Amino acid sequence: MSLKAFHLIFITAASLLCFGLGWWMLRAYADVGVKSDQIYGVASIVIGVALLVYEVFFIKKLKNVSYL
Amino acid sequence: MEIPYTSKPRPDTGIYNSKVGIWLFLASEVMLFGALFSSYILLRVGAGEGTWPHGLLSIPIGTFNTFVLITSSVTVVMGWAALQVGNFGRYKVYQAITILCALGFLGIKSFEYRDKFKHYEVWLKNPITVHQGGKAVLTDRLLGHIEYQGHHPYFWTTPRLAGSPEIKDKDGKVVKAAVAAVESFKFQPDPIHYTMTPKEMAHAKAEAKGHAHEVIEIKSSDVKRLSAFIPSHSTFFAIYFTLTALHGLHVLGGALVIFYIWGPGAKMWKTDPQRYMNRVEVSGLFWHFVDLVWIFLFPIIYLL
User: Fold this and answer.
1) Beta strand B223-228 with B184-189: parallel, antiparallel or unpaired?
2) Which chain A residues have a beta carbon less than 8 Å from that of B14?
3) Hey, which residues 257-296 in chain B have their CB within 8 Å of chain A?
4) How close is the nearest chain B Cα to the Cα of A65, in Å?
5) What ipTM is given for this predicted complex?
6) B292/A10 touch (CB, cutoff 8 Å), yes or no
7) How far is A7 from chain B (nearest CA, A)?
8) Sign, CA torsion B30/B297/B197/A22
């Protein structure tokens, strides 16, 4: 597996972490109502989406590099 | 004698030898971290309610460090991609950012460690009343910071309160000076304790905002046990320090290798560019593994 393939796995894992963290913080906001938790949760989800967008950009940019 | 398949792929595997080597090494690393992760999860799931220290790590600091590592992964792969198109200058810039991210991560982690080493739990012989977030609470277990003779001491445990005598070697030379016993110390209790549920902790933190820290005087004779947040405090901190220190050593090792390839080892780019690119790729694979470990470590340690 090349660095390109491993990077794609890593970015997928990182964006899943961002979505999980976002869900966690928004749940904390729903329970307690601390405003910073809401901002934190929304920001995490936005970053998760940004990482997926970057992933698509990365695939296009390195389309000539092998996955092996 | 030339080492075979350092640049070109080996016909039977289809990849160059060092890539096979790094993946075998990473497989062994998966087993190492996998064993530690599963130990942690089994202990965490098996712990009785209110017995497992949770909510004691700073999620914002952990999140920031996560993004530092994600950034470093992006720069390490961009550096490698720059080499693929022959742009050595851009590679140097990207890898310099990777090295800075690694140092930044370790710096932030050491700041976190420092904070833990002077944060305490005290178990009292008899319950006392403390004011937390405007409410009076009767408790015999407190988290917080010690103030003694104008300082916030590090690494204190129960034996430190009793002090220790002078130690001399066989020639009568003082090897270790006497440490005076502590009669009493000031303590700033936190508004939370890990025996609370996450929801109770969040409420207590929110209520305590805007209230000044109470400072109480605790006599050493009233203390049943005292411990900083060090490995001997609890199973949680033992595993926390084992996992994060092991990970930190991997970050340091990876950063040293990347630095060597980036700095003194960079002359290979002129003599054997394909082999140099392979080296960069292999170091990048290791770096991604280290970052991926953190992606699992962060939610398990900081959130669970």
Assistant:
1) unpaired
2) 68
3) 281, 284-285, 288-289, 291-292, 295-296
4) 9
5) 0.95
6) yes
7) 7
8) negative
Query: Please, what are the domains in chain B?
Result: 26-117+235-303 (1.20.120.80), 120-228 (no CATH)
Is-contact B101 B71, C-beta < 8 A?
yes
Q: Structure tokens of B154?
A: 């590090």
Q: Is A42 exposed, middle or buried (0-12, 13-18, 19+ CB in 10 A)?
A: middle
Q: Does A8 touch chain B (CB under 8 A)?
A: no
CA nearest to B283 within chain A: A3
Mean of all residue pLDDT scores within chain B? 93
Task: Quote the percentage of chain B above a pLDDT of 70.
Answer: 99
From chain B, the residues in CB contact with A3 under 8 A are 77, 80, 281, 284-285, 288
Q: Residue B113 burial by CB count (10 A; 0-12/13-18/19+): exposed, middle or buried?
A: middle
Look at A3 and B77 and tell me if their CB atoms are within 8 Å.
Answer: yes
What span, in angstroms and rounded, lies between the C-alpha atoms of B304 and B43? 12
At B190-231, the pLDDT tens digits run 988 888 888 888 888 878 877 777 899 999 999 999 999 999
The residues, any chain, with a CB within 8 Å of residue B200's CB and separated by 6 or more, are none
A4 touches chain B (CB under 8 A): yes
List Cβ neighbours of A33 (8 Å cut-off, separation of 6 or more).
none
Amino acid making up residue B106 = L
Integer Cα distance of B81 and A13 in angstroms: 21
B13, B54, B70: best mutation site toward chain A, by most A Cβ within 10 Å?
B70
Q: What is the pLDDT of residues B270-291, one digit of tens each?
A: 999 999 999 999 999 999 999 9
pLDDT of residue A34: 85
Where does residue B221 rank: exposed (0-12), middle (13-18), buried (19+ CB within 10 A)? Answer: exposed
Domain residue spans in chain A? Answer: 3-61
